Amino acid sequence: MKTNVFNMNDLKTLSSFNHLACKRNRSGAVVLNSGDSNGYGIVLNLGRENVPVLSIDSKRQNITFLSRYAKRMICPDYKDFEEQFISFLAAVGRECKLKPVMFVSGDLQLMCVLRHRKKLEAYFHLPMAPIKVVEILVDKIRFYDTLRKFGIPHAKTDVPENMAEVRKISQKLDYPCILKPVQSTSFVAKFGNKCLKASSAEELVEVYRKVSCEEDDIIVQKELIGTERYLVNMYFDRDSNLKAACCYQKLRIQPIDFGNASSCFTVWEPGAVDLAVQCLKSIGYTGFAEAEIQRDHSDGKLKLVEINARSTTQNRLSARCGMNMEYMAYKEILGEKIKWIKPPKIKVIWVDIIREILAVFSFDGYLMKKKVSLGEVIRSVKGRREYAYLAWDDPKPFLSLLFTFMRTYVFRKKNLLTVLKIIKSS
After folding, report:
1. DSSP classification of residue 410
2. Which three-class secondary structure state does DSSP give residue 93?
3. d(CA 345, CA 351)
4. C-beta separation of 260 from 343 below 8 A
5. Predicted TM-score of the model (pTM)
6. Could you give the 3-state DSSP secondary structure of residue 90?
7. What φ, ψ does residue 30 adopt, rounded to 5°?
8. From CA 82, how far away is CA 79, in angstroms rounded?
9. Are 262 and 358 in contact (CB under 8 A)?
């Protein structure tokens, strides 16, 4: 691809990005992201360290484009136009006077970049594990096979190939169980949750029938009983040595059964950390990773649920605790030695304000289902806090999200009355 594919705004952006990099005498960072809290956290964690940041996405609504810490560029959609996307990135790299470091916030984007690693490494530093290692974590069938191979505790898992196999295993399973995709970022959009629950053989067959119309490969797994859920954010150097680990416990999630964290707080649970490190060391992992571990109250054991092979949602929390893992990766790949950072003992609370409001006040949320009182919610978020989007030195992204949220949910009379009713009943 020739550089004349860029429009005038793109050329101005690249010129400004190059000017900052040369002025600060340091490589910039190119962040491929979709505007979620993960992508914004990468931008903020690097920008606050005076690293020039170029944020790239195919959607103009990306909230990182509003950040004072990032320049913005629109690219081809990697899902529909992979070759054009990679050629576009190569053209960006060719225009950079100092070779930039690339960061990626999503699984599909990451796999796309790794498939073309040889071409992109001519223009970018890529602080990511090899594709053969990343595939073990991204492909859930291979992931659970790896857990079995190394004897790492996890929920009993089956991967039926058709309805006949589902009917066969349905008579032998210990219910309740859950169904989830092997690889799909669209599952939540289709079904409203990361996984679906079945409490009987009949319900399993029915749920599988519904899901199999949308997904090719489906996992059937014993549901882990209990709400003690941990996340471990880690960074491994190029020799697979652990250099930082931040452990936190989920406080509330949204949706409240199998959703993502809306709030959590830092703890140090050695069993959860050891489980995550054991798995990643066994495959020679390098770079960012975040593991989810849950205590199964049916037997009291901690069990590994999944591992993300990238920077993740609570990356600002780790940075707040003195472990800016994005900046660690940036420094290491540019040749600077990094040291092990001792985990903090302080309790820091992380909140995604908008998701937390939905988790607590929605019709199927914590208050309505009487899982928590309003007073307990208020007390639980007191103390030292970090946020998914709110940043006092960079307010525009959060204000934009808040305006959209207020317009969509709060200023509709029906929704407002529902929230008031829930508060009154609590």
Report:
1. I
2. helix
3. 19
4. no
5. 0.90
6. helix
7. -105, 120
8. 6
9. yes
